[in-house]
Amino acid sequence: MSEPKSILLHLDSSPRIGQRLEIAAQLARTYNANVTAMYAVSSFYPGYPFAVPSSAEAVAVLRDIEAANRTAVKAAFDAAIQGRAERMRWAAVTIAAERAFSRQARYADLMILGQHEPGKEAQANLPPDFVQWVLIESGRPALVIPYIGALAPVGRVAVVAWKNTREAAHAVGTSLAFLRRCERVHVVSWGEEDDVEESGPLDIEGYLRMQGVVSTMHHNMARPVAVGEALLSLVADTSADLLVMGCYGHSRAREWVLGGVTRSVLEAMTVPVLMSH
Questions:
Q1: 3-class secondary structure for the chain?
Q2: Backbone phi, then psi, for 220, in 5-degree steps?
Q3: Could you tell me whether strands 157-161 and 184-190 are parallel, antiparallel, or unpaired per DSSP bridges?
Q4: Cα–Cα distance, 198 to 118 (Å, whole number)
Q5: Are strands 242-246 and 216-220 parallel, antiparallel or unpaired?
Q6: What's the rounded Cα separation, in Å, for the pair 235 and 175?
Q7: In sequence order, which residues have a C-beta less than 8 Å from that of residue 277 and are 6 or more positions away?
Q8: How far does Cα 218 stand from its chain's mean position?
Q9: Contact assessment for residue 66 and residue 97, using Cβ atoms and an 8 Å cutoff
Q10: In this structure, are strands 242-246 and 273-276 parallel, antiparallel, or unpaired?
Q11: What was the pLDDT predicted at 249?
């Protein structure tokens, strides 16, 4: 990916949006990019009138709560963009949040999303599969920010999870603007029992070198039982502040079924993860 010029930042009602705003502002400065901060949440009250006898009063209360949440997030956005208003703008939707955000993301080079925080669905006013929905549905790369531990700046030391797949290749391609600015880049891969790839003139180390990225390779023959945990362990061992990996998953009716490594990283991540499906 060339340097991102259009960034779509997701905002919700959770108290963690300050991290995302700060990282978005950092990337806007670094890449001379424009950021659209979209407040996209699901309504509290679809179907609510059919569940509660005093539905009119209850719906009015919920609407007031939603309006107050939106006002509070807009105030946080306004405070965060002081001196940066020419690069960051506000937008909001409250109907079909996943679909609306995914459709808008196709006009952006990069999304910035927040990791799902278990038990905080009502507080954030989002379904738990929001991140995987927009990653897979939009087709755009995303920088997913953990709900704890992530502070700007991002992208001094990176770990790249490599496997010769479409998803991993897409993730590496979309991360090049970040990798070129890193002080150190570590690439990790594991052998696969069904890996029939023969050695050839091209490999990931050479590809990165031609792209201006010098990397340290970590070739491992035995695939660990828990690849996600092994990736996060290497992130900690290398003091990385960015993990690059493919997002593996497919749809099954309304549910998005994620691969095991993708799921475990999204659940336990401690640094921003640049993912692409």
A1: CCCCCEEEEEECCCCCHHHHHHHHHHHHHHHCCEEEEEEECCCCCCCHHHCCCCHHHHHHHHHHHHHHHHHHHHHHHHHHCCCCCCCEEEEEECCCHHHHHHHHHCCCCEEEEECCCCCCHHHHCCCCCHHHHHHHHHCCCEEEECCCCCCCCCCCEEEEECCCCHHHHHHHHHHHHHHCCCCEEEEEEECCCCCCCCCCCCCHHHHHHHCCCCCEEEEECCCCCCHHHHHHHHHHHCCCCEEEEECCEEEECCEEEECHHHHHHHHHCCCCEEEEC
A2: -120, 130
A3: parallel
A4: 43
A5: unpaired
A6: 17
A7: 135, 136, 139, 167, 170, 246, 247, 248, 249
A8: 24
A9: no
A10: parallel
A11: 72
CA dihedral 251, 171, 90, 75 (to 10 degrees): 90
pTM for this prediction: 0.89
Most confident of 57-61, 96-100, 142-146, 228-232: 142-146
The tokens describing 230, both together, are 């092994």
**Type of residue at 77:** F
CA 267/CA 112 separation, integer angstroms: 17
